[in-house]
Design goal:
The structure is a homodimer of 763-residue chains. Chain A is α+β, with helices and mostly antiparallel strands. Chain A contains 20 helices and 28 strands. In chain A, helix 18 links the parallel strand 27 and strand 28. The longest helix of chain A has 28 residues. The N and C termini of chain A lie far apart (67 Å). The interface between A and B is large, with 58 and 58 residues.
Chain lengths: 763, 763
């Protein structure tokens, strides 16, 4: 069933820019988001959050709240199945429902400020808030650890006392290091010895948040047949189902998740924080319950991208060939194990061919929110550190920054630093396109005479792109319209990009496909919308369903003509007989005659795919900086990326633009500003400074199409890799403008002024 | 793909009585009915109904209503596409969207009291009601016709002035007879001449209502991309889609109908009264609108079963063989063409083999609500008349009433009086089972000494049972659970009866199938739940999907074993190799290994079927009557019916019991009490007297299983034929008790007393 891409093929639908199927719904208000769910008898659910970042819970007394009129249910960790009762417990480091249940509602300790300790369901919001105030929690405060250095100190307070950490595969007790792993190939020490220039640097990064506009929400009904129905804005309804099942010890088939529309996710809406709480409240209350976070709850109680410490060492020979590279990543997991350090290790050297490599990764518990995925999780941190050292190597070695990347580019057949061999990869083509770009070849006036200075920076990035399981179904109407069910949440236009792949095969317009994303009972299993897997994997499932539909329609045509189905061929959306040219039916003609041949035509397609082809990107940025204030403006930005094949170019560009913008925010402004007691001091969108459209120029995109060898159309994921290069590119532009190297994010005005001060002192 | 029934086969799932999948939802309130739909910005829609039964609309002025604060939209017939604009107009007598649009909102005339003349959308109910009061309608009253005799009188006022009626195929103008058709076989006059006993009688019947508990409702959103989303309690979401599309001149693919749960339909929820109104209001208002009827609106403005006049003539020879029979049906279509007279003609002689027959059917316009389907539409009226004459023949001829039916029973190969040849039919077996029943063989004390008298009655009935188009999809989970999408509204337990047919083939429990009924975008076309087609046709679609799933799973097992799929067999829900007995995988074992073989498994099945095998029934009833008051009590009731194969016996019995109860209500109490000016005087459940459980004994059922030759399990429809026999059976029991023959329904206390008075006078 798997066709392979034909390079250079001209498509009718793929590569065009139809209006997305959900466009009108989303601008007219017909689209249903989580907050829109209204059910008869619906109760308001809310949570009580810890005022301390690290404390033992000595007691929780909900009796005064329970006694209040209008309160229907209170829930604490005691309402979760006990460890002994659990049927699923996959161990530390992977999906661990004991740990996740402790994160959803604190058990014996609170691990971070804002950690949920209790939840309540009441007739309305005011009653719920009043009742929350009547819950008495007795805390014993404990020392707070807010960074990885303190966490791994010999005398560090142990945050998770029963944690069984792993050090290169060996169990470790009494530690804040949940995991330490290593990938090593070749002989790095010999590589450094063979080098003529070796640079080693250490970088510090703060946690940042995905910053999706829509807060988390969940509405649940739990009736006494044991079945739970959930509505939740999520990147993956099946993920909410499996997590809620695992957390509540239910069979997955007992849970139905309705995937309402999602107002941004970027990886952060892959974790089920509220669905299990809403379900437990609904079960106890005997009524439907809706729970929504406020912005403070989102910042304090969901999963930001990990900060931490990154050490990078690179050695090159005099010709500018990298001889060895090592990376040491100490990532803040947050209050529970599981940061993106593993993915950071996969991505860090993905754009390069390096014979001798060693990567150490540490997943470290600190008193901060449990980190979660954020758009190419781990890769922006890794690229910030690695690309910055690459740029310093080029500066000191006198190498052109793009030529250096070209000379050291990864190619098909090379080994990735964590082991696998690269399939066809567009690293070289992407860097070459950046070298050929108008931006790179346009001079920059570094001193425009307005008291500000300008600089240009460049950096690359890598993301592996995902695969996995997806399902789609197609159904043909009598008027030739095709209705599509698919299981992937639509975040960035995936209804369109999936439908277009089916439309292309069927030879019909994208608008003639009508996509739906049904509940988990009504479509086959489909993995999360994330990992840049959706257009690739769910698109392939839809393609398979289209292939099956054409085969079924050949049978139908053969029945009408009284010939063998093998004599029917399909071209240009028409069916004809190979042996009798008189026999010919257009798409709509045949669709109108299904009743004569057995009734409606429905087909299904599913896949379980290995990763799509890897994604590579190179970004160029021009910054203007005011040396008096340290304020930075983006003048021009060009993102070059290998997309494999842009199914819907506008939405692929949108992904690239969005990734670049988030990267600029991360580079220049965004951070969890955590005080010593573990409080986030800027937990609102007023104080947590994300760039808006007023802060930025248009982002230019250059899409390179090196078709992935996998799947019918050569699609690579596009959503994630654009967040990898911006941090180091901005740092490079700051250096180009001011001659200062920064080693921490965000590279905010204060840091720039400090570095300028330091430079002045040393000069 | 079509397996045929194996008589005598023992099944694992079919024939058992699992709890229906929607049972808990419906008793705990999780099930969503139309009234439960709540959307952000939802407006209240309501309608203005005509106070006159026949009038010309001279003008409608909505300006005062439009000017009211809180009023968002008013709609009149002028908002429908004009006749000239219509792309679909199938002509009188079939689906006619011009006529339906005139029924939904009156055009130039009101045809019956309660006819909708305008609709309004406002912020809330009170505002809507106040605004409705400000709409000024100028009427010119016209003479009112409330019965078929007046309607066909030479000087009758013509209700539909542009009606083109048909008289045996010839166009007729200036008439209230929309259609007159005839079926004639053999030589009826010769048959009557050959008879030794001929009886001819005329019967009068009043309109009755289906009496579903839940009033009609519709919620709609119409956004400016031209797409309409509708929620409505209906027997067929695709019917709402096609009717709304036809009425509003939209493509069906522009409309998505969400099938919320339905609180009873019985044929009456096949017509889209409110969806087009809600859609038009929503389109004009730019906001979602919900419209719900009250009970008075349901009685006055929906589709009751037609009343009318029925003439029956039967001739028999001295051996009790029917030599000839004729029927003359004059049915009240109501205010627009299209009564159930055609189906009455199909059913009237279905239980009998008669060589010489003639049936005349008339569809007649009167100033009453446009009639609609009601459970075996036309058959109860036909059976009331025909079975009553059969019983009188038996009385006068001295024939045993059941032996007579046995002697004259229809068999496979006989001709039905409207033409078709019967396939295998269980008439004889059903009558025989009634003869063998405990009820029939238990003596009845006709004078119990309490001042009341008792009588026993019997009658038979026939329904053809439907076929048509249905779609189902199955999806297999990693834990072996199967999720099913099917397109049929679940009125009487069809989720269970459809799921059980798939479960049987798959060898899993009914509870391991999880049924959903998705919106019209998300499942293949499926006809209405009605005609007793659903368990047969949609069950067959699910069976086909199950067959496809087993075939796909054979391929998956063969991949795991490295053998050819043709070497894999499936027995007792296990897969094994024919050639290597070591290779064996249970259902759940294989389900857990789908990821290794390409991912999720989903399959689809669809059908377009000719009718299921016909349904026959014979009912026995014992009544006790108070001769002082005419009040009648049901003492004992036994319903015998050929169900083909009872998939879920409890729900098949439930259908039979419900049909019998509705028939008892129709026989003894229910009627549209219409005053001379066309007003329904009893338009509430207080005054429209339906039997409740307190009025009735338990209904005994005897299910005969003469498997239908069509479909995998021999299923016949069960829902409709049980409404055919009760009317004549009750009439027969009244005769048995009191020696009076009644010729009108309902056979209410007043009529019984009048007949007793008449009898006294004549004796």
């Amino acid at each position: 069933m798997v066709a392979t891409h034909e390079p250079g093929k001209q498509y009718k639908v793929i590569g065009t820019r139809p209006i997305r199927h959900d466009g009108y719904d989303k601008v007219t208000g017909r689209a249903q988001y989580g907050a829109d769910i209204r059910l008869p008898g619906l109760l308001w659910g809310d949570v009580l959050r810890s005022p301390y970042a690290h404390a033992r819970i000595k007691s929780i007394d909900t009796s005064a709240a329970d006694a209040m009129p209008g309160v229907y249910a209170t829930v604490t960790h005691a309402d979760f199945p006990t460890v002994e009762d659990r049927t699923i417990d996959a161990g530390e480091g992977t999906v661990n429902f004991v740990r996740q249940s402790q994160n959803v509602i604190a058990d014996k300790k609170v691990h971070y400020r804002g950690h949920v300790v209790a939840a309540i369901a009441a007739t309305d919001k005011n009653t719920a808030l009043e009742a929350l105030g009547k819950i008495k929690v007795e805390y014993e405060q404990l020392p707070v650890i807010t960074n990885v250095t303190d966490a791994i100190a010999d005398d560090a307070t142990i945050i998770i006392e029963d944690l069984v950490g792993s050090d290169l595969g060996n169990d470790v007790h009494n530690t804040n290091i949940a995991n330490h792993f290593r990938h090593e190939f070749g002989d790095p020490e010999k590589g450094f010895a063979d080098s003529t220039l070796v640079i080693e640097r250490e970088f510090n990064m703060s946690m940042v948040h995905q910053g999706y506009i829509e807060p988390h929400n969940a509405t649940a009904i739990w009736t006494n047949d044991g079945r739970v129905t959930i509505w939740s804005s999520t990147q993956g309804a099946f993920g909410v189902r499996s997590q809620t099942a695992g957390l509540l010890n239910l069979a997955e088939s007992q849970i139905k998740v309705n995937p309402v529309e999602i107002g941004g996710g970027f990886g952060g809406k892959t974790v089920a924080y509220l669905p299990p709480i809403a379900a437990l409240l609904a079960g106890k209350a005997g009524r439907p319950v809706k729970v929504q976070m406020d912005r403070k709850g989102v910042f304090e109680g969901t999963g930001p991208a990990p900060g931490g410490k990154m050490g990078i060492k690179i050695g090159v020979d005099s010709a500018g060939k990298i001889q060895a590279a090592t990376a040491d990543f100490k990532f803040e997991a947050g209050g529970f194990p599981g940061s993106a350090v593993g993915a950071a290790a996969i991505c860090v050297m993905g754009s390069y061919k390096i014979a001798n490599t060693r990567i150490d990764g540490y997943d470290i518990i600190v008193n901060k929110p449990k980190s979660a995925a954020y758009r190419a999780p781990g890769s922006p941190q890794a690229a910030y550190a690695f690309e910055s050292v690459v740029n310093e190597i080029c500066e000191q070695g006198g190498f052109d920054k793009l030529q250096f990347r070209l000379d050291n580019a990864s190619h098909e057949g090379d080994r990735r630093a964590d082991g696998p061999i690269f399939p066809l990869i567009g690293t070289e083509e992407t860097v070459q396109a950046a070298m050929d770009s108008d931006h790179w070849n346009s001079p920059l006036d570094k001193n425009p005479g307005n008291g500000k200075v300008r600089g240009r920076g460049v950096a690359s990035g890598f993301w592996m792109n995902g695969g996995g399981k997806s399902s789609a179904e197609l159904s043909l109407d009598a008027d030739g319209q095709v209705f599509m069910n698919e299981g992937s949440a639509d975040i960035g236009g995936t209804r369109a990009s999936i439908a277009m792949q089916a439309a292309e095969y069927l030879g019909i317009a994208a608008e003639d496909i009508h996509p739906s994303i049904p509940d988990t009972d009504s479509i086959g299993f489909t993995g999360v919308t994330g990992g840049s897997r959706t257009t690739y994997a769910t698109g392939h499932a839809a393609y398979n369903a289209a292939v099956a539909m054409v085969e079924e329609l050949k049978v139908r045509a053969s029945m009408l003509w009284g010939i063998d189905a093998s004599d029917v061929e399909f071209n240009d959306s028409s069916f004809s007989s190979k042996s009798d040219p008189e026999l010919k039916l257009g798409w709509k003609e045949l669709a109108a005659r299904l009743d004569e041949t057995g009734g409606p035509v429905q087909t299904a397609g599913s896949v379980n795919l290995s990763a799509a082809g890897n994604g590579t990107a190179t970004h160029i940025v021009d910054l203007e900086i005011d040396p008096e204030t340290g304020k930075t403006d983006v003048l021009r930005y060009t993102a070059v990326q290998d997309v494999g094949k842009a199914i819907h170019p506008a939405y692929a560009e949108g992904q690239i633009e969005g990734g670049a913008v988030q990267g600029i925010g991360w580079a220049l402004n965004e951070e969890y500003f955590i005080t010593d007691d573990g409080t986030m001091a800027n937990s609102s969108f007023l104080d947590y400074r994300m760039p808006t459209s007023l802060d930025l120029p248009m982002i230019d995109t250059i899409m390179v199409e090196v078709p992935s060898p996998f799947g019918p159309y050569g699609v690579r994921g596009v959503g994630e890799v654009p967040l990898a290069p911006p941090l180091a590119a901005c740092r490079d532009a700051i250096y180009d403008a001011l001659g200062i190297h920064l080693y921490s994010t965000p590279m905010k005005p204060g840091r720039i002024l400090e570095a300028l001060e330091e430079k002045k002192k040393n000069s």
